């Protein structure tokens, strides 16, 4: 479900306690706010409660007073909350290598406003996709990777992220492993996409390996990055059935489509404040 452009988003989490839903919804009622969407989840294994509410504010709406009042109301529950204003558009940096399908898809979805974000820069270890970024009027930074001095290249990447004020980094088929230091800096605000083939195939030409094994499913996984390669908290996954008639090039084409769609879905969930980190898992409301 897409977010309405005129609504505020309230997200909160706290330990599981009686009255958590009432604490949020009653406060919104008392403030004269009209709830347009509401989802909550109580995780009985972790003992945490998660809630996301979209609402329209009354004509006389004081954001500072609202925050102060909710902070006081939620203190009893140990509640941590975020409030996101209407028409919020986060600044985003995209990291790519040579493959263009995910970048192209994100650019298109931004252009038609399906993804409400502002792409402020594209960073790559190759020059190949500069014309695509240039056509969209987006700054392109080519930082070649010296295997003997990876920290120097990552320092330039981090400088772009910081100076651009980016709140989200999207690894749109960036084919390099990030260092533990950069993973730590981007914890919770960088999304990666990769293929999901069963059995798992690593290394060169995974789709050719999959063809040789006669796989019947191809898919993709979008996840937050961490220091465990391709094992960060999963946000979204996609899958499609294939059969014996699919040659390696067919599997690759299907993989591109699923990667683009799955990544876009994950990015949409993130910028609409639908994703909560719950230990090494996610709650998506």
What is shown here, in short?
With 285 residues, the chain is of the alpha/beta class.
In oligomeric terms, what are we looking at?
A: single chain
Strand order of the largest sheet: 7-6-5-8-9-10-11
Unreliable stretches covering 5 or more consecutive residues: none
- Please summarize the sheet with the most strands: 7 strands, mixed
| Termini separation | 10 Å
**Average pLDDT reading:** 94
Measured as a percent range, the helix fraction is: 25-40%
Number of E-type strands: 13
Gross geometry: globular
Which structural class do you get from the secondary structure elements?
Answer: alpha/beta
Strand content: 25-35%
3D structure, described in words:
The protein has 8 helices and 13 strands. The radius of gyration is 21 Å and the shape is globular. The protein has 285 residues and is of the alpha/beta class. The longest helix is centred in the C-terminal third of the chain and has 24 residues, at 248-271.
Please specify the SSE layout and strand pairing.
Blueprint: E1 8-15, H1 20-30, E2 34-43, E3 48-56, H2 63-74, E4 80-84, E5 91-96, H3 101-111, E6 118-124, H4 130-135, E7 139-142, H5 150-164, E8 168-171, H6 180-185, E9 190-197, H7 206-213, E10 217-224, E11 234-241, H8 248-271, E12 275-278, E13 281-284
Parallel strand pairs: 5-6, 5-8, 6-7, 8-9
Antiparallel strand pairs: 1-3, 1-4, 2-3, 9-10, 10-11, 12-13
Name its key features.
285 residues, alpha/beta, seven-stranded mixed β-sheet, four-stranded antiparallel β-sheet, 33% helix
